[in-house]
Amino acid sequence: MADLLELSARIIDSGVADEPVNRITNELSELGDDLAIVESFSHSVVLRTGDGLVAFDASHSNTGVAVTDAIAAWATEPVTHLVYTHGHVDHVGGSRSFAARWGEPVVLGHENVDARFDRYEQTNDWNIQINARQFGGIRQDLGLGLENMDERNAQWRHFVPEGTLRPTVAVGDEHRFTVGDEEIELHHARGETDDHLWAWLPGRRTIMAGDFLIWNFPNAGNPQKVQRFPIEWAAAMRDMAAHEPELIVPAHGLPIAGTSRIVEVLETVAGTLDTLVEQVLQMMNEGARLDEIVHTVRVPDDVLARPYLRPFYDEPEFVVRNVWRQFGGWWDGAASRLKPAPDGDVGTAIAELAGGTDRLIERARVEADNGNLRLACHLADFAAWAAPDDPDVHRPRAEIYRRRRSSELSLMSKGIFAAAARESEAVVAADPSTDPSAEPTP
Length: 442
Hints:
By secondary structure, this protein is of the alpha/beta class. It is built from 17 helices and 13 strands. The strands form two sheets. The protein has a seven-stranded mixed β-sheet with strand order 1-2-3-4-5-6-7. A six-stranded mixed β-sheet has the order 8-9-10-11-12-13. The radius of gyration is 23 Å and the shape is globular.
């Protein structure tokens, strides 16, 4: 068993994360008497009550069997209660493995979980596509253990895996229940999702935080997903801090012990979100357009360097856009983009003005060589929209987007830019003159 509490204390106190903090080992570690965690995607935290086990989250369908194996090796009792911190598939998909091993438990989840599952069914193929893009092209561990997640996603046919258990107890704003010797309080707050719960175990002074704390910059801006709620997120973290917990266990990342250390982490994350939101709203009130806000609002580098706030998954720029969406709608303030021309028409016109797609894509290469990858990607897209089947355009476009991917920190940016590169690589591969043995640009 790993000493996870010692590891998290060392990393937080030193400010140095010299090893992964988000691990997918599927190994169980004890956190205290009758309390254990299985580090997975997501974690499953298990509480022995004297009258069966209570599990917080069931992990992913791909890891559910490994998680239940680890739990069964630790305790002979069955899991009688399963708490969903929220309805994302990496937290609920493994529930079918729980049911297969122990029979269907009492499943507690917020009342919006059912609506989430219904929405996922209505948009099944869309969700498979965007998750393949979000996690696609990952060839290295970013501290999340998501190697080859694009290949895994490509195998999915049902975004919510068949057999996933729905809640049998719908939780509102608060819910209290007792199992054996353990009292458990569930609290609802909007944050990454509108169906999120965090749990307070008063007898243990322990919090199960779900995805409110993920040891990365908060996932409050995801560019492909529904609205996130950074203001309520920060308020929830301050509510947790007010309970003065002695242990907090997130669903991703390391558990943390020690009230002062926990409160520091929670208050720092909450303050970072609050400050970011305040900057965006101030500029909105001053009449700034989204473009100016995106390129002005910043989180200080020393804050982003903290081991639990690094932008390796989501990033502040995306949260800025989500705040704008929450308070200002989808229009970015530029009149031409209210009812824009088709991308193909824009690309064709710009290519004509530039003197042809070859000159346009060459300028994109020059900008990339000069380190201006943002502008280079715009120009490469204009050229590709003007010449959607031209391998001589798509070959450099793929190269530019591979370079862009390599320059980014966040998994979301890397996944989307890798997907753009693959689009162009597919056009090149379809050209009869392409050497089939040639390797894609790394």
